[in-house]
Design brief:
- The protein is mainly beta.
- The strands form 20 sheets. A five-stranded mixed beta sheet has the order 27-28-34-33-30, covered by helices on one side. Strands 54, 57, 60, 61 and 62 form a five-stranded mixed beta sheet that branches. Strands 1-7-6-3 form a four-stranded mixed beta sheet, with no helix packed on it.
Length: about 1050
């Protein structure tokens, strides 16, 4: 409690108050200047021989290997660094992983690192050193053999132990780690114990725990002890091994084993705890009584440090402090406690104990100041030139605190008003260990201050906080540190082109704050190669003159440096920039980029469309380069836009009317006097596919006569067409689109030649209309269509019919083929039917003739009365009057005229009439029966449109139409000249212009329908066979 009087403040409290003021200033001003370092990591096996290369900073991490100095700051005596290359080597002091202080208190599985620091100083730039922080991971090698704590291990096992019971065996220890640590255990037993005991290895908290397993019944009276050998081996290559004697003592019966209340005991112990301070108490219970229930506690698998720092009461299990506890030496104690009863056959149990050492703020921060890079320290003093750059490091300050947590968080500041500050050298450090560069904050001036004493204060964050101080003297060395200074850092001059030689451009001046020879100045020019030789400067006065005639069009601006150097040692220089802008004069004509312009445009473009663009330049500047464009010989077809140089058309182009336009452009600048230039422009109008091909021949109404015997492959016609477009738009192709169903003709796609491809057959006779399409190759393509007519026939006698067919063709849609006679096939079929009917009639007639001959043979009178040239009596064809039941045969009386046929012949005549389908009628002109036959045969060709009649002088019966047609306008019987007469008779003695044959009906189909009607005339029986015939009549509808 506070008394009535305020106690006097101690020196430490005064220092803490003073430190708090500087701490706030440091937090505001110094933290933004913190820097970062570079972390380097290497790996090396322990126990390497001296001068073994661990790594190269230049080769491995890309640090420079020329003009830099490498210096090992931390890492001795295990490491050394080559000052030029940064190669890191081992030294005579071998790196032993198990002996390194940093790795002695590590837990299993943790990596072992050896830390080092290297500074890199640029010898050329004379800049602040760069600090590299690195770690070398020390890799374990198998250089330690696993060993048991004692060469003899004793285990006591009751004789009544159940088979399968397990008894722990003390662990073997190996200073190596990882795979080089303990890997396996092996139990070697003699014949007497081989079947009684076995070994089982359990994994317990990353440890291999050997356990003895009872495999048989034990009998103390037979054998009271057994000596076995237990062997341990690590996993190194080659492996290391050792063994111990395992002595097993068989005890009398002890029923119960002690049991701990907890399997794991944990406690925290503050460092610096007093002797006898209670840490924790372990407790085990035994259900037996008497000596079998008394428990004896002991350490199990405890290190020497545990046994040195802690004491275990063997009776109560209380663990107390018996040595100085320092967290900085050890931060955790981990061991086992064994509880064993005091029975004749003692039984034991084991528990794990973990004691964590809690930090107390019992360590003040430590401040270490050492040289860095080229700056060396001697007797606490550093020498530094006054011309060093700002932020030059003069020392490396390392602040650390052995405490942890908040007790180790250290704040470090520079005390006093000095031009130095601390900048964090690396961001990889911890709160308890930090590195700083002590560097300058302002330029040093020997003339102002020659020496500084820098005090560095470090304070941790404990309660109460602890602090420490350290100081460094810095001595400033004098140099020629004042460079010449120009009155203007940049001087700009406007100077006209086309000048005279040695004209004065400008005069510059500089001053030097130094005195004596350090203030005497010499001027010179520092120019790039492109400006050398144009200007010169007087070294004493600083006058700059021109040495050549300047041309603004060649170069408009010159920039160079003026250097003022003092005569100090070393000499200092000051520079200023000079910029000379060359003023323009109108000494250049406008210039078109091309000597002439040719533009191509598509036709049919709308007016005021751009057709081209010209570019004109003027090497001058300002008004001298402002150009006006105009069209010379302006007829209003074209205009030009000033500014863009775009030529616009006032008209819409039609290439077929005019394909080329030529004119001139004039360019005038705005100088005084003005200058001008001309250029020719040609506009070429490109074709657009706006015209379809035009058929020049043949005309649609014309035709070509082709004889039937024309040979295949012969050219029969040619289609000619023109296209007033040009290029591909005028390239034409020919193709037959219709009218060629027989593929009788073929047209050349390029020339339009039409050739006959096949032999002309009878069905091809007649008119053919080819639909030929002529396409150009434009996109989109345009086409024209031509109708090409061919007339296939022997003659052109019937021109009226041909003209009618041509007229009908022009009226017929193009998708309907006109090729030959369309009725040809149907006519052919009807002709076949007619031939069949005629054949049937002939067959029936022959049968009748045979019958008549047989009857005449029986009637001799009839034979004697036969006259040549007479037919049989018409009674043969007259309808029968008698009964069908009459006798089929009767005697014939001898007479000149034959008797009427017997009723028995009715059946034959009736069948004959049915087969011929005759219509028997009486005619007023003749007594012979009139037989009407429908003969619907179309004409074979226009030349076959004839009307046939008999040329016999004998009377005959005229043919009549099968159907009534008297009312039809065009159904008439015509008498044609003898040349168009065809006579059909029963023998070969008839005469006429053409012979009757089957080909008379195989004609080409026509586009027009017609009917043929006719009458078959049967002459009276007494008429000679020569005069039998038929008359054919064609009627066109």
């Amino acid at each position: 409690m506070w008394g009535a009087r305020r106690p006097k403040r101690s020196p430490v409290q005064c220092r803490m108050t003073w430190l708090a003021a500087y701490l706030g200033l440091w937090l505001v001003l110094q933290l933004p200047t913190l820097g970062t370092g570079t972390r380097v990591v290497y790996k090396v096996q322990e126990e390497q021989p001296p001068n073994t290369l661990i790594g190269s900073l230049a080769a491995d991490y890309g640090f420079p290997d020329v003009g830099h100095l490498y210096k090992l700051e931390v890492g001795a005596p295990y490491l050394r660094v080559d000052g030029k290359t940064g190669d890191i080597y081992t030294t005579e002091t071998s790196i032993d992983r198990e002996s390194l202080r940093e790795c002695q208190s590590q837990l299993p599985g943790e990596l072992c690192f050896l830390e080092f620091e290297v500074s890199i100083t640029d010898l050329m730039m004379n800049s602040s050193p760069r600090l590299l922080e690195g770690q070398i991971e020390v890799l374990d090698i198998n250089d330690n053999t696993p060993n048991f704590a004692s060469p003899v291990i004793t285990l006591a096992i009751p004789e009544n132990t159940n088979i399968g019971a397990l008894f722990p065996i003390p662990l073997a220890m190996d200073r190596d780690a990882g795979t080089n640590g303990v890997a396996s255990y092996e139990l070697l037993a003699g014949p007497e114990a081989q079947e009684l005991f076995g070994l089982q290895v359990a994994e317990d908290q990353d440890e291999k725990q050997p356990q003895l397993i009872v495999m048989g019944n034990l009998d103390r009276e037979q054998w009271d002890s057994y000596d076995l050998t237990i062997k341990v081996q690590d996993g190194g290559s080659p492996p290391r091994a050792s063994s111990a004697l395992l002595r097993i003592t068989i005890l009398d019966m002890n029923d119960n084993t002690p049991k701990f209340e907890k399997a794991l005991y944990e406690a925290e112990l503050s460092e610096n705890s007093p002797m006898g301070h209670s840490v924790l108490q372990v407790k085990a219970n035994d259900s037996d009584q008497g000596a079998n229930a008394e428990i004896d506690y002991s350490f199990h698998q405890a290190t020497d440090m545990v046994r040195r720092l802690l004491r275990l009461d063997r009776t109560t299990g209380l663990i107390t402090v018996q040595g100085p506890i320092d967290r900085e030496d050890v931060n955790i104690l981990k061991f086992s406690v064994l509880a064993k009863d005091k029975g004749a056959n003692p039984k034991s149990a084991r528990t794990q104990v973990v004691v964590t050492i809690k930090d107390m703020n019992d360590n003040a921060p430590s401040i270490e100041i050492r040289g860095i890079g080229l700056v060396t320290h001697q007797d606490g003093m550093a020498n530094i030139s006054e011309d060093v750059p700002v932020e030059t490091a003069v020392a490396l300050v390392q602040v650390s605190d052995r405490d942890e947590g908040e007790n180790a968080v250290v704040t470090c500041v520079v005390a006093g008003d000095v031009p130095f500050q601390l900048r964090q050298a690396s961001d990889t450090g911890s709160d308890s260990k930090k590195k700083y560069f002590l560097q300058t904050t302002t330029p040093l001036d020997y003339e102002a201050v020659k020496e500084y004493t820098i005090e560095i204060v470090a304070v941790d964050s404990g309660n109460p906080p602890l602090s420490s101080t350290n100081s460094l003297k810095v001595q400033v060395m004098d140099v020629n540190d004042n460079a010449p200074v120009f009155s203007q850092s940049l001087t700009e001059v406007a100077f006209p082109e086309n000048n005279a030689l040695d004209d004065l451009v400008v005069e510059v001046s500089a001053s030097d704050a130094d005195s004596g020879s350090n203030a005497k100045l010499v001027y010179s020019l520092d120019m790039d190669p492109s400006s050398k030789g144009f200007f010169s400067i007087d070294p004493d006065s600083g006058e700059i003159r021109v040495k050549t005639v300047l041309d603004r069009e060649q170069r408009e601006r010159y920039e160079f440096l003026v250097v003022a150097a003092d005569k100090g040692s070393p000499s200092l220089k000051g520079t200023a920039s000079v910029a000379i802008n060359v003023m323009d004069r109108n000494d250049n004509d406008p210039k078109f980029m091309l000597s002439s312009y040719n533009f191509s445009v598509m036709e049919n473009m709308p007016p005021l469309s751009p057709v081209g663009m010209v570019t004109v330049i003027d090497a001058d500047k300002g008004d001298n380069a402002r150009i006006q464009l105009s069209v010379e010989q302006d007829n209003g077809d074209f205009v030009i836009q000033n500014g863009t140089g775009t030529i616009l058309s006032s008209i819409s182009f039609d290439r077929e009317q005019q394909s080329t336009y030529t004119f001139r452009l004039k360019a005038v600048d705005g100088g005084d006097p003005p200058r001008s230039a001309y250029v020719g422009v040609t506009i070429n109008v490109l074709d657009e596919n706006d015209n379809a091909p035009f058929i020049t021949s043949p005309s649609n109404a014309s035709y070509k006569h082709i004889l039937p015997h024309t040979s295949p492959g012969q050219q029969v016609s040619k289609v000619k067409a023109e296209d007033i477009d040009s290029g591909v738009n005028a390239e034409l192709t020919y193709r037959i689109m219709g009218g060629n169903p027989f593929e009788l003709f073929q047209i050349s796609p390029q020339s339009g030649d039409i050739t006959l491809e096949k032999e002309i057959l009878r069905k091809h006779h007649g008119l053919h209309r080819l639909v030929v399409r002529v396409n150009d190759r434009g996109k989109p393509s345009r086409h024209g269509t031509a109708l090409v007519h061919f007339y296939v026939n022997e003659t052109l006698a019937n021109r009226t019919l041909l003209e009618t067919l041509l007229g009908h063709s022009l009226d017929t849609p193009l998708d309907i083929d006109i090729a030959g006679d369309p009725e040809y096939e149907r006519s052919k079929q009807r002709s076949n039917i007619l031939f069949g009917v005629i054949a049937g009639i002939v067959a029936v007639t022959l049968v009748i003739v045979l019958v008549v001959l047989v009857r005449y043979c029986r009637q001799r009178e009839a034979k004697s009365g036969y006259q040549a040239g007479k037919k049989e009596t018409k009674d043969l064809y007259a309808p029968k009057q008698g009964n069908k039941s009459s006798k089929s045969k009767s005697k014939v009386k001898k007479s000149k005229s034959p008797k009427p046929p017997k009723p028995a012949d009715d059946e034959e005549e009736t069948g004959l009439q049915k087969s011929l389908k005759f219509n028997l009628m009486n005619d007023s002109v003749s007594d012979s029966p009139r037989i009407h036959l429908p003969l619907n045969y179309p004409p074979g060709s226009p030349d076959l449109g004839r009307h046939y009649r008999s040329n016999s002088p004998l009377p005959s019966i005229q043919l009549q139409p099968q159907s009534p047609s008297a009312s039809k306008k065009h159904q008439v019987v015509q008498d044609l000249p003898a040349t168009n007469t065809f006579v059909g008779t029963g023998d070969n003695n008839s005469t006429g212009s053409e012979q009757y044959s089957d080909y008379s009906y195989r004609t080409n189909p026509q586009k027009y329908t017609n009917k043929q009607v006719g009458e078959l005339i049967l002459s009276p029986p007494d008429a000679p066979p020569l005069h039998r015939g038929a008359i054919w009549t064609e009627v066109w509808e």
